[in-house]
Amino acid sequence: MNETIQDNKYVELSYRVIDQKSGEILVAVEFPIGYVHGVNDILAPAVRKELEGKSAGDVIEVPLDCDQIYGPRDESLVFTDRLENVPEQYREVGTTLHAENEKGEAQSFIVTRIDDETLTVDGNNPLCGRQVIFNLEIMGVRDATEDEFEAGGPVSEGPDIPEALTIPIQ
After folding, report:
1. pTM for this one?
2. Hey, where are the domains in the chain?
3. Are strands 9-19 and 59-65 parallel, antiparallel or unpaired?
4. Which residues pair with residue 122 across a beta bridge?
5. 9-68+128-153 adopts what CATH topology?
């Protein structure tokens, strides 16, 4: 009998985020993610609710208005600067820059545009302003271990390397 998703269960799933207008896949996880249901809030409440009672092998689709999750798009978080003012390592579309505001709060910006003279960064979540569908496939459901429950998700002990393969560091 398959276990079903409920509070305190360890769940592994893979997902894709699909733009409702274009059908374009915006995000896809390459490897399953794990979390403890009801303990870790990595998923939007609407997604968590739809997962409850499901089991390994089930696939669900949940439509979401990303403005309800990330807030509406804020154009004051978009900045353009002259390319020569930007360090070389940040001159690639998709690069994330981290900054602090005057209150010391962290803010991430993504390089969204570069031309011959300017570079533009955007502090909005890339999903702001979009209507999306979360397509989730449940890979496994089981009781969470005590360590997983405390961490709210997977607990990694590192790779299991046979002693014969270890190399002493001099």
Report:
1. 0.71
2. 9-68+128-153, 74-122
3. unpaired
4. 78, 110
5. Chitinase A; domain 3 (3.10.50)
Q: Which amino acid is at 45?
A: P
CATH fold of the domain at 74-122? Thrombin, subunit H (2.40.10)
Q: What is the pLDDT of residues 62-81, one digit of tens each?
A: 999 999 888 899 999 999 99
Kindly report the three-state secondary structure assignment for every residue of the chain. Answer: CCCECCCCEEEEEEEEEEECCCCCEEEECCCCEEEECCCCCCCCHHHHHHHCCCECCCEEEEEEEHHHHHCCCCHHHEEEEEHHHCCHHHCCCCCEEEEECCCCCEEEEEEEEECCCEEEEECCCCCCCCEEEEEEEEEEEEECCHHHHHHCCCCCCCCCCCHHHCCCCC
